[in-house]
Amino acid sequence: MAGRSQPPYRPRPNFSSSSSRSFHPSQPSRNSQSHHTKNVNSSTPNSTQIQNNASDKKTSSSSWDKSIDEDIDDIQNLVGTCPFMCPVEEREKRERLRDLAVFERLHGNPRQSSPSLAVKKFCRTISVKTLQGSDVRPLSVLEDTLNYLCNLLDSTEHPFEVVHDFIFDRMRSIRQDLSMQNISCSRVVSMYERMVKFHIISQHKLRRCSGSNISSLSYLNMEQLTKALATLYNLYEANRTTASIFENEAEFFSFYVLLHLDSKTQGTGETLSLWFRRVPSHIMKSTEMNFARKILRYFKLGFYKKFIHTTESEASYLQYCIIEPSINEASSCIIAKKAPMAYALSHLPDKYLFTTPTFRHCWNIIGV
């Protein structure tokens, strides 16, 4: 089947809230260069690198995405054949049970849908013995399904929390189908980038919603954001050649750093200082990563004026969506004059602030 990597690469633990010890970019790359990468090194891999790559492929195991909460360890060599966004059997069953979301109802009828409206739901438990290829969608259908879901993001017909809840569940189902088939090619990298974008934008929009369940939706959304990011980093590694990086890779790595601005979303495992050591050097030197580290320093050291000014002048839209809660916090500190010394020091040039032994000691304490 097109798009399947043989064999799939060995998975790594994810950046979940319970642990952040997952990304190991120092491991050798495995798959071919994708269509949306750019050249950073024209050197040819030596024989030792080639032997290491071959050895890694022999020891690879299945089920690369462990960030989804289902039991699929026993599924091997599954090839999806479902031509629709939702398997026919599931759609008919949900029609009988009136289990159709508002976006899936044909002419508003809660008991009728169609192949162009129904989207496969996420299933937490899967019966391996009864699972068939017709229950799983191939890569091309999953890409079409993702396109359909992303087009719903700007829908104004329903409250955003309703839109988010539907897309959130159906995207988890996409990840589930990809994982069951062990598809890990460069096309999947692009899909995961889009799913990470959805979670970031959703988090931004959910802050403007009101309701009793918004807090729960935000928590679950942030949880899936960190899990999707973890899998995306592993996909970058698996599809990278020695002469290329992905076009958006540096920006997506910066998201993990920026997520550490908010203590509520930080992992409880490994510190950023250790995480940085395993990030590829070309990513560490990138404009996006330099921005993220600078922003983190400003915020942790209380230089709120510089923090806000730098964010407004340099952040991308997705970076701003992550930083926004910290901007509100920094503004409150300035207005309330809770950090007068930090405010005064924020007028000093970076050359002084970030080269003296005193401030370097502060960086070591906060892990940046």
TrEMBL record:
Composition bias type Low complexity, residue spans: 12-30
Span of domain SAC3/GANP/THP3 conserved: 85-332
Domain of life (superkingdom): Eukaryota
UniProt cross-references to Gene3D superfamilies, sorted A to Z: 1.25.40.990
Ranges of compositional bias, category Polar residues: 39-54
Short name of one Pfam family: SAC3_GANP
Region (Disordered): 1-65
Signal sequence coordinates: none
PANTHER family (alphabetical): 80 KDA MCM3-ASSOCIATED PROTEIN, GERMINAL-CENTER ASSOCIATED NUCLEAR PROTEIN
This protein's name: SAC3/GANP/THP3 conserved domain-containing protein
